[in-house]
Each structure stands twice: as structure tokens, then as C-alpha cells.
């Protein structure tokens, strides 16, 4: 019943149907479509035979090649580690001095350390490791827990005030908030602390007030920050005489520090970074410190 | 609009609105302590406005019987306008979030204005708001013409159109308030999902009823696609959204599936939302508007069959290509990859069928920007499906996944294919619907076309670049055998491309605004003289006219 | 074949049934076996469930759309394992209704974030990311620290989660709101119950730095700090990978 007609442009017949003026040509499917279809089906069949593919109730076909992503990636990571061993072995076994003296090794340390540091540490210590409010600079000032490589490596391993069982613990007490010192004492010691780093006191402190501040410092603070205020590496107490501050060196910040106390939290990296990676980071930081 | 409804139909509409008001009230009261209540209030408010509008018209006389001799196009007209409104809104938000990635502080400290909340407003706004309304509107138009049958009644299409838009509004306002279940393209919460099921079932029945009234013995290809779109989306939607609400007074629900099963269900849904919403539906559109506008017969009926069933079968296997190398068992990834590769054949067969249909009409493609929109759409359809099949190959996906390359692919499909075919269809149908000879300004269609093409190309090239650079930076090793770049370095490298993308998006948005103006002016043009006598029918001369119901 | 179709396309219902039939196959073959093949989800006998506070935090993570930029799925690829840690296992998201694997990494993967940074850092970062990472393009979420957490109905949340398969006990459900408070107020009497019910290793801390007030920030940070730590099933293979 359908009336077929021939399309003058292509020469093909129509199907004879018409929907609101739309007609269809009954053009045979071009060969290319079949070729293409067969090619993709062949590819599919081959791939399915070779790889894990078909579910069978409680299991699935494993494929002739016996490949498995999880095994593959584990192998890839191991192979890569083995390939890197040419230099990582030497870092693992060598002393810090020896590695630092080896330009080729240090090149790898710098390359690797930069990415490791930026992916893991930079959010706190800054891309340039110069720190930020609440996070110490790792390239200037005297390190809280000692400046030798082993101390730094240990800090990275266990963290500070972290969840690691051997974590370093450092706490600056809340002298004001916890009522250890009266407001007047705090003001006095604040002025004294400012003078330690050669800054002018906040107010025109009288010599008596400064002396009182010094006395309070001697009574309350030296146990951690030392006689001269230069800090104690075994307690993680910072040097108050240099111009490097974690929480800011202006009067307001120092007042807040003394009043509320501080307890910075540096995570432990033992579970997250391998020993080599941590050693690389230590070397990287020692190196940054040398050439800021 | 309402004037066309019979008294009876107006009463039915009123009953539906009252039921809706009651529903809104129940939600408001039940959810008074949660965001569900806010949505209840919204529903109530909309229903009350509707009730007032409807009661005011109850006394109007019944419309003339001769309305039954013509197709029922009012819902299509309204649907097209709503679609353009969503287009502007969705594209605007898209461009806004594009700028947010350049200037992250543009959030005014407000929760609703942050990237994570606005992003689904964009995706739902363009896909469901713009795309969905265009699909519903054109499906009403197409099914009537290709069946030579009027829609079976005058209330159901409005219910579908407005009910669907209520869903869209609940979805978008929900995201702004933080109501989302986080499943991409299925973000709305349980109550919106339930509502959509109701609307969708009615839509399906409406379609089926119209098909069964047809006076053509054969069902035209466009309707196969529209049917597949309606049916499969229903299945996907219901399965992927299975969830247990915290309580009937809470907006929050917990997905029935978890972990790996949830991931597979979600991407079975997600990928086929692409397939049956963004592809099948719009192929339906293409199969009607392109041959009519070109005045050419479809190149090959047999290719239509091959591609339709190929798409319907293969697509449903491909979802796992969104989960390559993840914790999804590898055997599923194998199936997802291989079926995605086979999928290219029917996809290209469709694109080829469309392009070959233009043979004999290339002069029109050159001169007519509306047809050129459809031509470019078919080209981008071919391009993005090729790209998709390519990205589905595991080795390629290991690079492209998680990067802007995916976003580039999405927008090659979304801007180049979905939006272009829609603009083409809208420019074709607006003069037909409003009984004009042509659009208000052919020049402005031309301007829109070039803005859209330029915007798309800038967007897609920017994202290809950024995506590939990003993917490479993440996996580049230095000569010590360790990772060469940190994540942050890759982020910094993205900035120029993000700026380019935002500019491309702006051009695309400008084009849509030009289109709105043009459509508005077309509607306002004096109806053509012969309009009343003449059927508002498309170019194809000698098209059979609707006959009075038998 | 074309002849058959010629007849099929004249029957609306036939077409409908054919579409449903043809389109159902793929999903059935790929999804159903995920429930029956045992290897799909690994065993992790010691895995714990999310605490109520972490559930609340997870819901905030969903609400704010963090998943739009962050993945929680480390793929089995060398560079991902070397950058982010051991590849993710299916079991790790066993209690995730829905999963939050993500599809885009505008920000880094955070599947193994728990314990990587301090609470204080998270708070500062969430309030304004550019205060701590100047290159960041992540939005700030300052209101989280200002907004009290709605914790009264957490019991209902746990109950709903139990209905979809998470093994919460009656006791956990009953004490949900209290536990949420206790987990962020280590010195309060409510803290003890949290470790009793969820294990000694549970983080009980004033996550937002203020134990006196339970905020959305507490919840979100508590959630971020547990990412990748519900079970150690995944860290075992990597120990061998590193050697
Ligand atoms: C003015 C034009 C547009 C601009 C500027 C734009 C911008 C964006 C941006 C910035 C994103 C987020 C990407 C990311 O997270 O990195 C996005 C995502 C998306 N957009 Fe658009 N968009 C536009 C038009 C459209 C259109 C017309 C559609 C669909 C019809 C669309 C569909 C989507 C989808 C599906 C996603 C999610 C992609 C994914 O998750 O991978 N967009 N868009
Ligand atoms: C043969 C056809 C196609 C195939 C095989 C395909 C394949 C893919 C693949 C492999 C991805 C990336 C998944 C990932 O790595 O996360 C993807 C993403 C996507 N594609 Fe396609 N694609 C096809 C056609 C299309 C078309 C025509 C559109 C229309 C707009 C489209 C829209 C999308 C969207 C929106 C996403 C993003 C999903 C997400 O949120 O992550 N695709 N597609
Ligand atoms: Ca996505
Ligand atoms: Ca708190
Ligand atoms: Cu897909």
C-alpha cells in the first residue's frame, strides 16, 4: 500500500511512508557500518576472552592473560622502587653528611623532596617552607627540637603533639587564662619578652616594671625557654630572642600566646611516608636551610 | 491557554491543584522542622496561585468544537519559552561557577553561592531545565505531527509540563539550601524523586495514548527515540533513587545501596542519563526537525533501525567506564569498555544518517543558520561519541578520568550537540507555532550561531588542554623516578584555561540571550495575514493536514 | 530483520516491550552479580561504623557539594598509589550510603585524609583556604564554625542507616545525640560512651577548638579525620608494596 518513489538526488527508493512531509529512503546500510561493527565485535570478544569479564553467579571468568589490576599496580610500584634503588639505597644507608656531599644524590633529593614536600607539608609550612601563622618556618630561625638532621627526622617521624605514641610533646602554658599569672605580671613579662628580641616595649614601661617582668620570666619561663630566652631543644620551646616567630612577634600576638598558651600540632608521618621518603624530606629541609 | 480547556477539564485541573495544595500543606506541617517544610510551603504557594487562576476561569464558556481539528500546541509554546528561561539561568550559573574557579572568593560569604551548591544548579538547570523542557515541548509537537493525531486531552500535557517544572524548581532551590543526595544528575531528594515518578508515568501514558490514536500505520523513528527516552529514564530513575528517608518529616534520605554497588548503580544511571536523556531524546528531535528543515528524506531507514537498537542495547552496558581502575571489580570494567567501543558504531550510524540526509541541501546549510545549528549538532554528536568511546578505553581513561578532559567531553556533547540541536529545533518551530513566516531576524539567528560555535570551541579546546596537561602532570616522573609535580602545581597550571573557558561560556550565554530576544520579537510580530486560514505547517509542501477525529 | 522491524514499528506496545527488554539486559548482567560474587567486597572484620558526629559531618560534606571537587577513590595506578597512598578497596565504602567516590579532582583525592593534617589546620582551611594555601581555589565555608550542629535527630539517621544495612546497635541509636556531643567534648561526661561504643581509637577531641559548643565545623572535621581509617584493610598491601 505504501507508494515508493525514487529520490532524484540520491537515486534511492523511499520506503513509501510519509509523516507530515518526512520521507525515508530505503538506502541499504553502507558496508562500512557492517565492517566497523564486525571489527568492534571481534575486538570485544578477544578482549573478553583475555581479561576478567563474564560474571558467573558467584564468580567470574578470569581471562586467559590472568591479569589483575591490583596485582599489576602492586608490581608496578615495586618495580619502580627497585629501579629507584640505585640511588635510594645509598640514601637509606648513607650518613646525612655523605649524602649531602654527593651532588648526584642531592639532585634526586631536591627533585623528589620538592614534590613530597609540596604534596604533604606545604599546606602548613608553605610551598617555600617559610611557614605561616601558627606554622614554623623550616628554613630560618632555630628549629624547635634541634637543628641536627636526626632531630628533624625524628620530628617528622613522630610529630609534635600528635597521635603517635612517641610523639614529641611541647606545650606553652596558658599563663593568663589558667590564672598562673595576674594581668599585671603578664603585661610586665610581655614587655620583657619584647625587649629580648630587641623590640620596644608596648608601653613606656618603667625600669621597675621591666625588672618585674624579668623576674617573672626567670620564675616562670626559663625552665622552658632558658636563662637567656634562647629556647630549649629538648622541650621544643622556641628561641624568643631572634626575630622568627611562629605565632607573630607583635605585642598583641605575644600577649595572646602568653595568655592562652599554644600547642601546635604537627602530624606524625611514620604511617604515611616510607623511611626513605622521610629521610629525603629531612635532607631536602637541611638543604633548603643552607641555601634559602 | 486556559481558554482552550473545556469546563470539565478546568474542573479536573482545579481538582489536581487542590490535591497539590493539600500535599503541600501536609509537607509544610510534617516537615516544619526541616527543609522539607520549606519545599512544602513552596508547593502550597504555587498550588494556591494556580487555584486562584483556575477558579477565575471556571465561568468561561466551553471552547469551540473546531479546536479538535487542530493540533494542541499551547503546551509546546509554553514549554519552549520555559526551556529558554532555564537555558539562560542554567548557562548563567554555568558561567558563574566557571568564574568561581578563577576567582574563588566570589561567594559573598554565603552558603548558597559556593561552588559545590551551585554546580548542580547548573547541571540540573541545563540538562533538566533547558534540555528536559525542550524535549517535552518538542515531543508533544512531533508526536502529533508524525501520528496525525491531536493529543488525547488538554489537561495531561499541562500536568506533565508544569509537574516537571515543579520538580526542576524543587531540585534547584533544594541545592541552594543544601538539599541533595549527592548522586550526580540524580541529586534531588526522595520526595522530589517520588513526584517525578508520578509526572513521568503520566507523560508515558500520554505518549502512548497519542500513539494509539495515530493515523499513520507506522510509528516514525523520532517517536521510537522519544519513547526510549521516556521509558528508560523512568527505569533508571526509580532504581538509582531507591532510598530510605530519615523520617517522613525530613528532607534527608539514605541511599539503599552503598559502596561499590551504589557506585555501579549510580553510573549505570549516570551514563544512561547521558544516553537516554541527552542522546536518545535529542535524536528524536533531530529526526524530525532536520529532515523537515532541510526538505530532504531521511537518508536510510535501515540505518535508523540499526542505530536505534544498537544505542538502546549497547549504552546500557557502558556505565562502568566511569569507574575504570576503581574498586569496582575489573570484570565489570571490561564489559563497560568493550561495549562503549561497540557503541561507537550505532552512534556514528546516527550521525552519518543525519549528515547524509543533508545531501542535496548543502546550499540550505550554507544559507540558513537554523539548519546550520542542526548540522553542527550532528557533527558534534559524532565527535563527542567518538571521544566518549575513546575515553572509555581503560588506558585512555587512566589519563582522562578526574580531569577537565571529562568536562571538555561533556561540553562538546552538551554545547555542541544538545544545545545546538535544541536551538535549531526551537528556531524552526517558533515561527510555525506562532504562525509567522520566519524568525523576527535571520541576522540575529546568524549572530547566535556564531557566538555558540565560538563559545563551544573555546570551551572545548580550553578543557582539552587543561585536562590533558592536568592528567600528564599527575603522572609525570622526573629522571629520579619520582613524581615530578605536586597537585598544587597542576592546579596553578589550570588557571589560564579556566579563564578561557569562562570567556567561552560567556559567549555561549550571550548567544542564548540574543536567541531569547529574537524569539520574543518573533512572538510579538503581527501574525501573518493568512495565518487563520492556513495551517502553521513547516516547509515540506503538501504535508497532510490533520483530519477531524474519526 | 528489517521485515520483522517493519511489523514491530506498527505496534506501540510491542515497541515499548522491546525497548524495555533490550535495555534491561546490560544493567542486570552488570549489577546483580555485584551482590552475589563474594570477592566484590573484601572482608574487614574490624571495620567500625561512622559515629553519629561523623555521620553528621558526612551529611555536611554532601550538603556543601565537596564531592564535586574531591574524589575519595584512589585508583589502581602507580602514580595515584605513590601520591595518595594504598589504592581504595570496595570494603572501605561499605557503609557509605551513598558512596562518595567522586568523578572530578579539582582538588586532591581525600580517600586517605584522616590524620594527615591537624584539626586546627582543617578549621583554618575550611574558614578560608587561601589563609593556609595561597594558590587554592576552594571556596571558604566560614559559616560552619558559626552554625550549631542540629544533632537532636541523629538517632533517626542511624536508624535509617540501619534499615539500609549499617550495623548500628540499639544502644548506638539511643545515645546518638549524646555521643555526637561527647565526641567533640573530651572532658565531658558524654565522651566516655563514645569510645565504649565505637572503639578506643575513635577521635574524641574538640575538633573546632572549642569544646563548649557543638558546631557543624566539629562534625565536618571529625568526618575528614576518619577518612580512610574505618578499617586498615587497605594499608596492609602497601606495606609490602613499599618494601
Ligand atoms: C555557558 C555555557 C556553560 C558553561 C560556562 C559551563 C560551565 C560548567 C562548569 C564550570 C562546570 C563544572 C566543571 C568542573 O567541576 O570542573 C560544568 C559542569 C557541567 N556542565 Fe556545564 N557549562 C555550560 C553549559 C552547559 C550545558 C549547555 C550543559 C548541558 C546541556 C552543561 C552540562 C554540564 C554537565 C553535565 C556538567 C558536569 C560535568 C561532570 O561532572 O563531569 N553545561 N559546566
Ligand atoms: C558513544 C557515546 C559516548 C561514550 C562511549 C561516552 C563515554 C564517556 C566516558 C568514558 C566518560 C568519562 C567517564 C569518566 O572518566 O569519569 C564520559 C563522561 C561524560 N559524558 Fe560521555 N560518552 C558518550 C557520549 C556522550 C554524549 C553524546 C554526551 C552528551 C552530552 C555525553 C555526556 C557525558 C557526561 C555528562 C559525562 C560526565 C559524567 C560525569 O559526571 O563524570 N557523553 N562519557
Ligand atoms: Ca561528574
Ligand atoms: Ca566544638
Ligand atoms: Cu558514560
UniProtKB/TrEMBL annotation, chain A:
Binds 2 heme C groups per subunit. Pathway: Energy metabolism; oxidative phosphorylation. It is found in: Cell inner membrane. Keywords: Cell inner membrane, Cell membrane, Electron transport, Heme, Hydrogen ion transport, Ion transport, Iron, Membrane, Metal-binding, Oxidoreductase, Repeat, Respiratory chain, Transmembrane, Transmembrane helix, Transport. Its main location: membrane. It comes from the Bacteria. GO terms for biological process: oxidative phosphorylation; proton transmembrane transport. GO terms for cellular component: plasma membrane. Its cofactor is heme c. Residues 108-197, 208-289 form the Cytochrome c domain. InterPro entries: CcoP_N, CcoP_N_sf, Cyt_c-like_dom, Cyt_c-like_dom_sf, Cyt_c_oxidase_cbb3_su3, Cytochrome_c_Oxidase_Subunit. Heme c 1 binds at residues 121, 124-125, 266. The keyword Transmembrane applies. PANTHER family: CBB3-TYPE CYTOCHROME C OXIDASE SUBUNIT FIXP. Belongs to the CcoP / FixP family. C-type cytochrome. Part of the cbb3-type cytochrome c oxidase complex. This is Cbb3-type cytochrome c oxidase subunit. It comes from Enterovirga rhinocerotis.
UniProtKB/TrEMBL annotation, chain B:
It comes from the Bacteria. The chain crosses the membrane at residues 12-30, 36-58, 78-101, 121-143, 155-178, 190-208, 220-239, 267-289, 301-318, 338-361, 373-394, 414-434, 446-464, 498-520. One of its GO terms (biological process) is respiratory electron transport chain. PANTHER family: CYTOCHROME C OXIDASE SUBUNIT 1, CYTOCHROME C OXIDASE SUBUNIT 1 HOMOLOG, BACTEROID. Keywords: Cell membrane, Copper, Electron transport, Heme, Iron, Membrane, Metal-binding, Respiratory chain, Translocase, Transmembrane, Transmembrane helix, Transport. It is a multi-pass membrane protein. One of its GO terms (cellular component) is plasma membrane. Heme b 1; low-spin binds at residues 122, 411. Pathway: Energy metabolism; oxidative phosphorylation. It catalyses: 4 Fe(II)-[cytochrome c] + O2 + 8 H(+)(in) = 4 Fe(III)-[cytochrome c] + 2 H2O + 4 H(+)(out). Residues 13-550 form the Cytochrome oxidase subunit I profile domain. One of its GO terms (molecular function) is metal ion binding. Its main location: membrane. Belongs to the heme-copper respiratory oxidase family. It comes from Enterovirga rhinocerotis. Cu cation binds at residues 271, 321-322. InterPro entries: Cyt_c_oxase-like_su1_dom, Cyt_c_oxase-like_su1_sf, Cyt_C_Oxase_1, Cyt_c_Oxase_su1_BS, Cyt_c_oxidase_cbb3_su1. Binds 1 copper ion per subunit, denoted as copper B. Binds 2 heme groups per subunit, denoted as high- and low-spin. CDD domains: cbb3_Oxidase_I. Heme b 2; high-spin binds at residue 409. It is found in: Cell membrane. This is cytochrome-c oxidase. Pfam families: COX1. Its EC number is 7.1.1.9. Its cofactor is Cu(2+); heme; heme b.
From TrEMBL, chain C:
Keywords: Heme, Iron, Membrane, Metal-binding, Transmembrane, Transmembrane helix. This is Cytochrome c oxidase cbb3-type subunit 2. InterPro entries: Cyt_c-like_dom (IPR009056), Cyt_c-like_dom_sf (IPR036909), Cyt_c_oxidase_monohaem-su/FixO (IPR003468). The keyword Oxidoreductase does not apply. Residues 52-228 form the Cytochrome c domain. Pfam families: FixO. The chain crosses the membrane at residues 12-35. Signal peptide: none annotated. GO terms for molecular function: electron transfer activity; heme binding; metal ion binding. The keyword Nucleus does not apply. Gene3D superfamilies: 6.10.250.2250, Cytochrome c-like domain.
Amino acid at each position: 500500500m505504501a507508494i515508493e518513489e525514487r529520490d532524484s538526488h540520491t537515486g534511492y527508493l523511499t520506503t513509501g511512508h510519509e509523516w507530515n512531509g518526512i520521507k525515508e529512503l530505503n538506502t541499504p546500510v553502507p558496508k562500512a557500518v557492517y565492517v566497523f561493527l564486525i571489527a568492534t565485535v571481534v575486538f570485544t570478544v578477544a578482549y573478553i576472552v583475555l581479561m576478567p569479564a563474564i560474571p558467573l553467579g558467584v564468580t567470574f571468568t578470569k581471562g586467559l592473560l590472568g591479569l589483575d589490576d591490583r596485582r599489576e599496580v602492586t608490581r608496578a610500584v615495586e618495580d619502580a622502587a627497585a629501579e629507584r634503588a640505585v640511588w635510594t639505597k645509598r640514601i637509606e644507608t648513607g650518613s646525612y653528611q655523605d649524602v649531602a656531599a654527593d651532588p648526584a644524590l642531592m639532585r634526586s633529593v631536591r627533585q623528589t623532596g620538592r614534590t613530597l614536600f609540596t604534596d604533604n607539608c606545604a599546606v602548613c609550612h608553605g610551598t617555600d617552607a617559610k611557614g605561616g601563622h601558627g606554622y614554623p618556618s623550616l628554613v630560618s630561625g632555630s628549629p624547635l627540637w634541634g637543628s641536627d638532621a636526626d632531630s628533624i627526622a625524628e620530628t617528622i617521624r613522630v610529630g609534635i603533639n600528635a597521635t603517635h605514641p612517641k610523639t614529641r610533646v611541647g606545650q606553652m602554658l596558658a599563663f593568663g587564662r589558667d590564672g598562673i599569672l595576674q594581668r599585671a605580671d603578664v603585661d610586665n613579662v610581655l614587655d620583657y619578652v619584647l625587649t629580648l628580641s630587641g623590640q620596644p616595649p608596648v608601653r613606656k614601661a618603667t625600669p621597675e616594671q621591666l625588672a618585674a617582668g624579668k623576674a617573672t620570666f626567670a620564675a616562670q619561663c626559663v625552665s622552658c625557654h632558658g636563662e637567656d630566652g634562647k629556647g630549649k631543644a629538648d622541650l621544643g620551646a622556641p628561641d624568643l630572642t631572634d626575630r622568627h616567630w611562629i605565632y607573630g612577634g607583635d605585642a598583641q600576638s605575644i600577649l595572646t600566646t602568653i595568655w592562652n598558651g599554644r600547642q601546635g600540632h604537627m602530624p606524625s608521618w611514620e604511617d604515611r611516608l616510607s623511611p626513605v621518603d622521610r629521610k629525603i624530606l629531612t635532607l631536602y629541609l637541611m638543604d633548603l636551610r643552607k641555601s634559602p | 491557554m486556559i481558554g482552550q480547556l473545556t469546563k470539565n477539564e478546568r474542573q479536573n485541573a482545579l481538582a489536581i491543584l487542590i490535591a497539590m495544595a493539600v500535599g503541600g500543606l501536609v509537607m509544610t506541617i510534617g516537615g516544619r522542622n526541616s527543609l522539607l517544610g520549606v519545599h512544602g510551603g513552596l508547593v502550597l504557594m504555587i498550588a494556591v496561585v494556580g487555584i486562584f487562576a483556575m477558579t477565575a476561569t471556571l465561568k468561561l464558556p466551553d471552547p469551540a468544537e473546531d479546536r479538535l481539528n487542530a493540533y494542541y500546541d499551547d503546551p509546546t509554546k509554553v514549554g519552549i519559552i520555559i526551556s529558554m528561561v532555564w537555558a539562560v539561568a542554567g548557562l548563567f550559573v554555568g558561567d558563574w561557577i566557571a568564574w568561581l574557579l578563577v576567582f574563588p572568593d566570589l561567594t559573598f560569604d554565603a552558603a548558597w553561592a559556593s561552588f559545590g551548591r551551585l554546580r548542580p544548579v547548573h547541571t540540573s538547570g541545563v540538562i533538566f531545565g533547558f534540555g528536559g523542557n525542550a524535549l517535552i515541548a518538542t515531543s508533544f509537537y512531533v508526536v502529533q505531527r508524525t501520528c496525525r493525531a491531536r493529543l488525547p486531552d488538554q489537561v495531561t500535557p499541562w500536568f506533565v509540563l508544569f509537574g516537571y517544572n515543579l520538580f526542576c524548581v524543587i531540585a534547584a532551590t533544594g541545592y541552594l539550601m543544601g538539599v541533595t543526595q549527592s548522586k550526580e544528575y540524580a541529586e534531588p531528594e526522595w520526595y522530589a524523586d517520588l513526584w517525578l515518578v508520578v509526572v513521568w508515568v503520566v507523560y508515558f501514558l500520554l505518549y502512548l495514548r497519542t500513539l494509539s490514536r495515530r493515523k499513520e500505520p507506522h510509528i516514525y523513528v523520532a517517536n521510537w527515540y522519544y519513547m526510549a527516552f521516556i521509558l528508560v529514564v523512568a527505569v533508571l530513575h526509580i532504581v538509582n533513587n531507591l532510598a530510605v528517608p530519615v523520617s517522613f518529616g525530613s528532607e534527608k534520605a539514605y541511599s539503599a545501596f552503598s559502596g561499590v554497588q551504589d557506585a555501579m548503580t549510580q553510573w549505570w544511571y549516570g551514563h544512561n542519563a547521558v544516553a537516554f536523556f541527552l542522546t536518545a531524546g535529542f535524536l528524536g528531535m533531530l529526526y524530525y526537525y532536520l529532515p523537515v528543515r532541510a526538505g530532504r528524506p531521511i537518508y536510510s531507514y535501515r540505518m535508523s533501525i540499526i542505530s536505534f537498537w544498537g544505542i538502546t542495547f549497547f549504552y546500557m552496558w557502558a556505565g562502568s567506564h566511569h569507574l575504570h581502575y576503581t574498586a569496582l571489580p575489573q570484570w565489570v570494567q571490561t564489559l563497560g569498555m568493550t561495549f562503549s567501543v561497540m557503541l561507537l558504531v550505532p552512534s556514528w550510524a546516527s550521525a552519518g544518517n543525519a549528515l547524509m540526509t543533508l545531501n542535496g541541501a548543502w546550499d540550505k546549510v550554507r544559507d540558513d543558520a537554523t539548519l546550520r545549528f542542526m548540522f553542527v549538532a550532528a557533527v558534534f554528536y559524532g565527535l563527542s561519541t567518538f571521544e566518549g568511546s575513546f575515553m572509555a578505553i581503560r588506558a585512555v581513561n587512566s589519563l582522562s578520568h578526574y580531569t577537565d578532559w571529562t568536562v571538555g567531553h561533556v561540553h562538546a556533547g552538551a554545547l555542541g550537540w544538545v544545545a545546538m540541536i535544541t536551538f535549531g529545533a526551537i528556531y524552526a518551530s517558533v515561527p510555525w507555532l506562532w504562525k509567522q513566516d520566519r524568525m523576527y531576524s535571520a541576522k540575529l539567528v546568524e549572530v547566535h550561531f556564531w557566538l555558540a560555535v565560538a563559545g563551544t570551541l573555546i570551551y572545548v579546546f580550553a578543557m582539552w588542554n587543561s585536562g590533558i596537561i592536568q592528567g600528564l602532570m599527575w603522572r609525570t616522573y622526573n629522571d629520579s623516578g619520582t613524581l615530578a609535580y605536586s597537585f598544587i602545581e597542576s592546579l596553578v597550571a589550570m588557571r589560564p584555561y579556566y579563564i578561557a573557558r569562562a570567556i567561552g561560556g560567556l559567549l555561549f550565554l550571550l548567544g542564548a540571550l540574543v536567541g531569547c530576544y529574537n524569539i520574543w520579537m518573533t512572538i510579538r510580530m503581527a501574525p501573518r495575514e493568512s495565518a487563520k486560514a492556513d495551517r502553521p505547517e513547516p516547509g515540506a509542501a503538501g504535508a497532510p493536514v490533520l483530519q477531524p477525529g474519526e | 530483520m528489517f521485515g520483522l522491524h517493519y511489523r514491530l514499528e506498527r505496534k506501540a506496545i510491542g515497541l515499548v516491550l522491546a525497548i524495555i527488554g533490550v535495555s534491561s539486559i546490560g544493567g542486570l548482567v552488570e549489577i546483580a552479580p555485584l551482590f552475589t560474587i563474594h570477592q566484590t567486597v573484601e572482608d574487614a572484620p574490624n571495620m567500625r561504623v561512622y559515629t553519629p558526629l561523623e555521620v553528621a559531618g558526612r551529611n555536611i560534606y554532601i550538603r556543601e557539594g565537596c564531592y564535586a571537587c574531591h574524589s575519595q577513590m584512589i585508583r589502581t595506578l602507580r602514580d595515584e598509589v605513590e601520591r595518595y597512598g594504598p589504592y581504595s578497596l570496595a570494603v572501605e565504602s561499605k557503609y557509605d550510603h551513598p558512596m562518595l567516590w567522586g568523578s572530578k579532582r579539582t582538588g586532591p583525592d581525600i580517600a586517605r585524609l584522616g590524620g594527615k593534617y591537624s584539626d586546627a589546620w582543617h578549621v583554618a582551611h575550611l574558614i578560608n583556604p587561601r589563609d593556609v594555601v595561597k594558590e587554592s581555589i576552594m571556596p571558604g565555608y566560614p559559616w560552619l564554625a558559626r552554625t550549631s550542629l542540629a544533632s537532636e535527630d541523629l538517632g533517626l539517621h542511624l536508624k535509617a542507616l540501619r534499615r539500609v544495612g549499617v550495623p548500628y546497635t540499639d544502644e548506638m541509636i539511643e545515645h546518638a545525640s549524646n555521643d555526637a556531643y561527647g565526641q567533640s567534648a573530651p572532658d565531658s561526661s558524654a565522651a566516655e560512651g563514645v569510645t565504649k561504643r565505637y572503639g578506643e581509637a575513635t577521635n574524641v577531641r574538640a575538633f573546632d577548638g572549642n569544646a563548649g559548643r557543638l558546631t557543624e565545623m566539629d562534625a565536618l572535621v571529625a568526618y575528614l579525620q576518619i577518612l580512610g581509617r574505618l578499617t586498615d584493610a587497605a594499608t596492609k598491601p602497601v606495606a609490602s608494596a613499599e618494601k
